[in-house]
Design a protein that fits this description.
By secondary structure, this protein is an alpha+beta fold. Strand 2 and strand 3 form a beta hairpin. It has 1 helix and 5 strands; from the N terminus they run ββββαβ. The relative contact order is 0.34. The protein is flat. 17% of the residues lie in helices and 27% in strands.
């Protein structure tokens, strides 16, 4: 797993499935200062998954805050890109 897709141990659980269009994700040059993550609050009905992951971009303070609260909010998160 690349550094860009590495999940930090303090982060919430990873998404169980990454949509194909995000498998080799590369952000635009003007957005490389942001954290890019797929986030999802899973929603199920009688064994059928209703929710879908969405791409969210965070600046450093927002990412730190989200990461700290994501578990309590019920989010699954997969980091697609982490600025160096």
């Amino acid at each position: 797993m690349s550094k860009q897709q590495k999940q930090q141990s303090s982060s919430p659980k990873e998404l169980s499935e990454i949509p194909a269009k995000y498998k080799n994700y590369t952000p635009e040059e003007k957005e490389k200062h942001l954290f890019h993550a797929l986030i999802e609050q899973e929603n199920w009905d009688k064994g059928t998954k209703l929710s879908k992951p969405s791409l969210q971009k965070f600046n450093k303070p927002s990412w730190d805050n989200f990461k700290k609260n994501a578990i309590q909010l019920g989010y699954s998160v997969t980091v697609l890109y982490e600025p160096e």
